Amino acid sequence: MGFIFSKSMNENMKHQQEFMLMNAQLQLERQLTMQNEMRERQMAMQIAWSREFLKYFGTFFGITAISLTAGAIKRKKPALLLPIVPLSFIFTYQYDLGYGTLLERMKGEAEEILEAEKNMLQLPKGMITFESLEKTRREQSKFFTDK
């Protein structure tokens, strides 16, 4: 009789462990999905910001380029065209970020770093562990109780 009861308890515990594992996996999948959704929304906001900024900066750049060109021709001073050079770099960068392939190139470079230069990503003193956190917490706790 005790053997049957023990066997039933073991089966119940096994089913409960499987349920807990499945539940933990589902929770982790939901967290990963949520984090990815947040990342995608942040990236979309960054691209949208860049496109909006490009509209304003493009207008500024166009007016400035036309004005400086007209001034250089009218006054016969080609030096007035020099500010167009750095402004064109900013304009090109913003255009590439908003409508070009900058994000794709950055993603490719990031993947290359993750694969080939893993040592660049290491934290000083290695990964944070529960033990190191507890040690710091205990030290801080002693510090505050000593005062």
TrEMBL record:
Matches recorded under Pfam families: DUF2368 (PF10166)
Q: What is this protein called?
A: Plasminogen receptor (KT) isoform X1
Q: Which InterPro entries match?
A: Plg-R(KT) (IPR019319)
Q: Which domain of life is it from?
A: Eukaryota
* Alphabetic keyword roster: Membrane, Receptor, Transmembrane, Transmembrane helix
Please provide, in alphabetical order, the Gene Ontology terms of the cellular component aspect for this entry. Answer: plasma membrane
Q: Which organism is it from?
A: Carlito syrichta
UniProt keyword annotation of Transmembrane present: yes
